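Hi V.,

Quick status before I head out on leave. The structure for the redesign project is tokenized and pasted below; the design run finished overnight.
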């Protein structure tokens, strides 16, 4: 029997939801701990599968990990890291393990990783990561689905990415931190998680200019120190709960919403007719009357995040008219549209476009989550659908949302994990 999520829709939600630490900020920070022999402490990290798997990976590589999930604190000492090969089954299951490439290459001079390959949302090549490592002097060899990087000392160099890649920029920042001389990264990703990694690297002793801009200059150091760092709140989880609150909230208050990094989401929600009011770090949404249809294009930060596109699609099924969503980051990230259609939504997909015809009443049924954000989308749909929804594929949800059912139950949702 499989574990599925059972949701009984239609219950108005009331109460307070607290946003967790950011998964996508935590993962590169964990990778950065491999750059030093000294102890590093991270606080406010979310207890999600991707984080747990990354910690297991660090242990596998020889690092010492002491993790307290109850308070979201981890202390890592990577003094004895010697393995240069993250296990294949982990790389296959957790794409973010590519983030070990930059730090292991810089620290050990060699790293071998099985190529992560495509995943449910698209091809996801790593050519830009490899181009960056090569520019710093690494030899790249691709064989039998593995990539081997080797360098007897990295040397700083100028790199211009063809596309602004988030984990590519993070990987290169880490490699450049132990390189000899200055590296300049142009067309760097602007995502706040990249800037947060820069902050931690600065705490480790690296000189960095241009943090938070598309041109980052890194002056490498021979040795790096440890750091203590509190991870920022998860802007994607926050956006997910803002949409929950707009869809089903009677009086929901969100705490810990990093609104300063969410202007594109706030703007689109505003256009749809959802007003957001923030006071003393507490955020409420108001969706009086009919929702308006919108045109939304996903784009790199500060544009509308691809990671919120699926959740927004549920909101737009309730808007009064035709909305158009354009998914520009990942070519296969509209699979949730088919599941929403099975719940009664009127959505036409011609990739990269999805036309959502609202308003329509969703009806609960058995659906399949195909990736992390698609699973959040189906939870949102289940909360507003008539009757019962059963969601399969929960391992996706567990990768990136901390205690989602518990949080939703605390505001009155009827959500249970059951065997079915
Ligand atoms: N790309 C290339 N070549 C490369 C790297 C990327 O062509 O070498 C392309 C990709 O195919 C894509 C675009 O560049 O079209 C952007 O991809 P990016 O590399 O920025 O994505 P990522 O670093 O693999 C991170 C997040 C994703 C998030 C994307 C986009 C982490 C661990 N993952 O992935 O998060 O969707 O940036 O913002 O930070 C999620 O949390 O659900 C998730 C998938």
């Amino acid at each position: 029997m499989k574990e599925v999520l059972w949701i009984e829709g239609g219950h108005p939600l009331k109460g307070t939801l607290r946003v967790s630490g950011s998964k996508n900020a935590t993962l590169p920070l964990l990778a950065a701990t491999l750059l030093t022999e000294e102890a590093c402490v991270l606080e406010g990290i979310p207890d999600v599968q991707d984080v747990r798997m990354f910690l297991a990976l660090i242990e596998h590589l020889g690092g010492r990990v002491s993790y307290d999930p109850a308070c979201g604190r981890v202390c890592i000492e990577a003094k004895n890291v010697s393995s240069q090969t993250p296990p294949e089954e982990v790389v296959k299951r957790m794409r973010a393990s590519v983030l070990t490439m930059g730090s292991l290459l810089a620290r050990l001079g060699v790293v071998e990783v099985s190529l992560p390959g495509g995943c449910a949302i698209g091809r996801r090549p790593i050519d830009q990561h490899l181009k960056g490592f090569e520019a710093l002097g690494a030899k790249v060899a691709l064989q039998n689905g593995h990539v081997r990087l080797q360098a007897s000392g990295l040397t700083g160099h100028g790199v211009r990415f063809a596309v602004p890649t988030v984990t590519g920029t993070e990987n290169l920042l880490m490699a450049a931190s132990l390189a000899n001389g200055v590296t300049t990264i142009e067309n760097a990703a602007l995502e706040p998680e990249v800037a947060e990694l820069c902050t931690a690297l600065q705490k480790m002793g690296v000189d960095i200019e241009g943090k938070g801009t598309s041109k980052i200059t890194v002056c490498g150091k021979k040795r790096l120190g440890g750091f203590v760092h509190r991870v920022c709140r998860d802007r994607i989880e926050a956006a997910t709960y803002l949409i929950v609150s707009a869809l089903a909230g009677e009086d929901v208050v969100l705490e810990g919403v990093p609104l300063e990094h969410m202007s594109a989401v706030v703007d689109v929600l505003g256009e749809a007719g959802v007003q957001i009011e923030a006071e003393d770090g507490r955020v409420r949404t108001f969706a009086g009357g009919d929702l308006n249809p919108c045109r939304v294009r996903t784009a790199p930060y500060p544009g509308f995040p691809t990671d919120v596109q699926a959740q927004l699609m549920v909101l737009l099924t309730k808007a009064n008219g035709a909305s158009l969503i354009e998914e520009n980051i990942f070519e296969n990230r509209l699979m949730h549209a088919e599941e929403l259609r099975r719940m009664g939504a009127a959505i036409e997909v011609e990739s990269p476009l999805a036309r959502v015809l609202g308003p329509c009443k969703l009806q609960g049924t058995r659906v399949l989550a195909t990736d992390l954000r698609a699973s959040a989308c189906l939870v949102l749909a289940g909360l507003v659908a008539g009757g019962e929804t059963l969601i399969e594929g929960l391992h996706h949800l567990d990768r990136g949302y901390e205690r989602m059912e518990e949080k939703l139950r605390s505001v009155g949702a009827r959500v249970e994990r059951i065997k079915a």
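Above is the designed sequence. The first strand starts at residue 3 and ends at 8.

G. will cover questions while I'm gone.

Best,
W.
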